[in-house]
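Batch manifest line 218
LIGAND: magnesium ion
JOB: complex structure
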Amino acid sequence: MRIILLGEPGAGKGTYSAEMVKKYGIPQISTGDMLRAAVKAGTTLGRQAQEFMKKGELVPDSVVIGLIRERIQQSDATQGFILDGFPRTVPQAESLEKTLEGMGITLSTVLKIEVSKALLLKRLTGRRVCPNCGATYNIDTMRPQKEGICDKCGKELVQRPDDRPETIENRLTIYQKDTAPLIEFYEKKGLLKRVDCEGEYEEVLERLFSALEKTARV
Ligand code: AP5
Ligand code: MG
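JOB STATUS: finished
ARTIFACT:
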């Protein structure tokens, strides 16, 4: 299955991707995670990306397009993948289309995660991440067993630098301007499925998986 998870910052793309990885055994490909890894490693790409990311702005299309083109051609992605945070602009979506065409494959579906703005804000401000292994928690909804400590590797949890209130607002504005047009882009292609992702976690998962299972193109 080749899936795109589309949704605002904080919608749950990373959280649900992890569930899909477990269920389908296909990799999650997150441009946000790839860029954060580059920042952490201090590469040239990381240093360039950091300037945009800390303000909540998008990294230039040319940078992320190159990253994805290379990543989806790796051997672990031959059975499928979950794109989390890519594409995020119409030029990115068009370039993805060309890359997939060149590989002789098509997308299975685009799931649009639907969550209210109030919930997005609550989730983003409550999110805590492990700087070591990247695991994600939430001080309201997904607490670690020991407060402030990662269940998986024992490191102290931190707030993502772009989860500060002023940056969150900027990210949501940029989403509306640059990313929301993708809803129509994929709707026209008959690929978009909207899934209401408010409510009990298990129920939301069931809705997402049932939308995926009804996907015609596998
Ligand atoms: P990126 O890392 O992609 O961030 P984002 O899109 O803003 O999305 P988030 O990771 O903030 O949210 P999410 O939807 O993954 O939510 P999560 O599952 O964590 O991008 C970061 C930056 O990198 C961008 O601003 C940009 O600069 C750059 N970038 C990345 N891709 C790019 C691209 N393609 N082009 C250009 N630039 C790019 O959930 C949020 C919280 O809610 C968590 O605490 C979680 O535990 C909790 N939660 C989630 N679901 C539930 C639930 N059902 N119940 C209870 N709690 C829940
Ligand atoms: Mg994420």
